[in-house]
User: Fold this.
Amino acid sequence: MNFKEFGNTEQKLSALGIGTWDIGNNVKENVDSIKFAIDNGINFIDTAEMYGTEPVVARAIKGYDRSGLFIATKVWPDHFSHDAVIKSCNDSLKKLETDYIDLYQLHWPSRTIPIGETMKAMEELKDQGKIRYIGISNFSVDQTKEAMESMNKYKIASNQVEYSMVTRDIERSGIYDFCRSNKIAVIAYSPLSHGKIFSKKTMIDELSKIGTHYGATASQMALAWLMNKDNVFPIPKATNGTHMKENIASTEIRINPEDMKKMDAMEAKYYEDSIASRHSSN
Ligand code: NAP
Assistant:
């Protein structure tokens, strides 16, 4: 397993985390699948109060050395008032059946509650040892700066944002560069664009072609492209056991700089192709 330093935390996390949103209704299968990931070196599992999957994670991690795992969960914006943050955290601790959360994240920015009030509660939770690190999710550069400035004692460890070969908004908006220069880890959610990547034939063909040098499939190359960026941690969701195995195996892929450059340029090419095909069909 490839381990990487997680932002400014000095914690080594598996380069791949496990996403648990919408993991399906078969709890036993979900639990077994997370256990399989842990048994194969994954130590980073992401959930959220909103997903309803904290109890599934609790069942999966039972019996493992808690200190070897990094459990991330999130508080929903409806609960961003000071007291509601504290209550949500206590509820998540109960559902996760644990004494502490490794990474507690604000799921989306709030339109109504001032960030200072929310962050005061987050800092208190950290002081009490209920959470180890503070993260944000879906925050723009300006919202991230505001969150950083509203904390007195602690730093933002991570920003969880959508990022994949086909969803590259964080590169254009400046989030990627800002996080990198401030040692804020980027947790890449929907790293296979919810499975939509497989409908982009030009891209999949090119990824498969590059993948032949690495003995890797197109989906493995798409995940490896993210993992080969030092500050990025993809968290794919896989309910299918074969997918889970394939994703875990992708952590071993080291893409050479020339192929990374080719892959970096693929989105532009993909869009050129789709514009060309739209013109030709008009
Ligand atoms: P994703 O991981 O990009 O894609 C999941 C889809 O890809 C599923 O249909 C899965 O199928 C399929 N898949 C996984 N591995 C595959 C493989 N090796 N080959 C072929 N297909 C594969 O999308 P996501 O679930 O939206 O995102 C992942 C995680 O990000 C979520 O679970 C959640 O934890 C997090 N997230 C966070 C936010 C946020 O606001 N912070 C928003 C969305 C998601 P099977 O299930 O059949 O294996």
User: Anything to note?
Assistant: The two ends are 48 Å apart (CA to CA). The pocket of NAP is lined by residues 19-21, 46, 137-138, 160, 189-195, 219, 235-240, 243, 246-247 (CB under 6 Å). DSSP finds eleven helices and ten strands in the chain. Residues 3-194+229-255 form a domain with the TIM Barrel fold (CATH 3.20.20.100).
